[in-house]
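Subject: design request, 238 residues
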């Protein structure tokens, strides 16, 4: 899956808030739909981007009518870490708007929604994303594959996590009781370092951001090679 239109030159060290929202929507396996006073849990989604089910339209310019008969709708998503870390909720996303066409969970056609805003809540705070930002953002190319890649790393190659820990500064890693990968995106891998009384996340940046899932193996190997070159590995308690 190639990320067409990906930014060049001045790419940030982590996804933007709009990219984070698009990635959560692209990888979601469930959501809660709130409309007409009812909450409907939609599970076992087919893995397609939620924006294929909901067509978002801009709100008309000018003041919104007080009552126009269009029901409000809210889409709620919870992004859960696929690995068994502390505090597994990585983000919550809420997309709000008003229905332009009827909605039903089993509807074959997409539902048109007049977009109000999306809210991203993480441990870094809360941010609001407008429709233009959302339209211009791309889902991370690893988003549909991230869960499988991280669980494969933990379950089948557990010896590589302590190796990656060598890339964390020694004073930070010295009190770590357990380290696990908690996230991976086109910019790098995030390790969650768990201490007796809390945890801290550390990002290990890839040499360059990737724009295709097929490039992930080379990027991870580059991190592992850099870790092997270090002569003072950090160690975890037995």
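Subject: RE: design request

Done. Sequence follows.
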């Amino acid at each position: 899956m190639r990320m067409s239109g990906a930014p060049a030159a001045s790419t940030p060290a982590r996804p933007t808030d709009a990219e984070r929202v698009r990635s959560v929507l692209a990888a979601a396996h469930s959501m809660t739909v709130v409309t007409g006073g009812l909450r409907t849990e939609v599970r076992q989604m087919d893995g397609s981007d939620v924006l294929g089910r909901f067509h978002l339209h801009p709100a008309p310019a000018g003041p919104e009518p007080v009552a126009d008969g269009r029901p409000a709708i809210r889409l709620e998503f919870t992004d859960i870490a696929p690995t068994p870390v502390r505090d597994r909720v990585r983000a919550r996303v809420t997309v709000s708007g008003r229905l332009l066409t009827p909605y039903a969970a089993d509807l074959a056609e997409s539902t048109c929604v007049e977009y109000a805003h999306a809210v991203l809540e993480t441990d870094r705070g809360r941010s609001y994303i407008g429709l233009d930002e959302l339209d211009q953002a791309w889902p991370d190319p690893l988003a549909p594959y991230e869960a499988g890649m991280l669980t494969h790393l933990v379950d089948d190659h557990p010896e590589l996590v302590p190796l990656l820990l060598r890339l964390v500064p020694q004073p930070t890693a010295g009190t770590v009781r357990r380290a696990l990968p908690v996230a991976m995106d086109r910019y790098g891998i995030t390790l969650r370092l768990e201490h007796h009384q809390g945890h801290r996340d550390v990002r290990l940046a890839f040499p360059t951001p990737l724009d295709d899932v097929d490039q992930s193996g080379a990027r991870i190997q580059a991190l592992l090679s850099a870790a092997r070159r270090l002569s003072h590995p950090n160690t975890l308690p037995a």
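Helices lie at 17-27, 131-136, 146-156, 160-165, 170-173, 216-228.
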